């Protein structure tokens, strides 16, 4: 799966995956989702984001973990 909305640049935030070249790391979006914020709340806090950015950040994280890693994290 490709993630055109996720960019990684060595000269931006130490190479952390970001949303569309913005200085908004994927990890920040994931943390907000994990904290219970709804997409609309996240978009209000970060007006440069689009709903598709949030969805792609979640898919990016899921693929980064992969099925085996996800199962270990859930099952201990």
3D architecture notes:
It is a single chain. By secondary structure, this protein is mostly helical. It has one domain: Arc Repressor Mutant, subunit A (Orthogonal Bundle), CATH 1.10.10.10. Helices cover 54% and strands 5% of the residues. It has 3 helices and 2 strands. The protein has helices at residues 26-34, 39-45, 51-75; strands at residues 6-7, 18-19. The protein has a two-stranded antiparallel sheet. Helix 1 crosses helix 3 (51-75). The N and C termini lie far apart (27 Å).
What's the total count of β strands?
2
The CATH class designation is: Mainly Alpha
Q: By helix and strand content, what is the structural category? A: mainly alpha
Q: Any guess at the CATH architecture? A: Orthogonal Bundle
* Beta-strand residue percentage: 5-15%
Task: Categorize the overall geometry.
Answer: globular
Poorly predicted spans: none
State mean pLDDT (0 to 100 scale): 91
> CATH topology, which one?
Arc Repressor Mutant, subunit A
Helix content: 40-55%
Task: List the topology elements.
Blueprint: E1 6-7, E2 18-19, H1 26-34, H2 39-45, H3 51-75
Antiparallel strand pairs: 1-2
Helix pairs in contact: 1-3
Notable characteristics:
76 residues, two-stranded antiparallel sheet, 5% strand, Arc Repressor Mutant, subunit A, mainly alpha
What's the short version?
By secondary structure, the protein is mostly helical. It is built from three helices and two strands. It has helices spanning 26-34, 39-45, 51-75; strands spanning 6-7, 18-19.
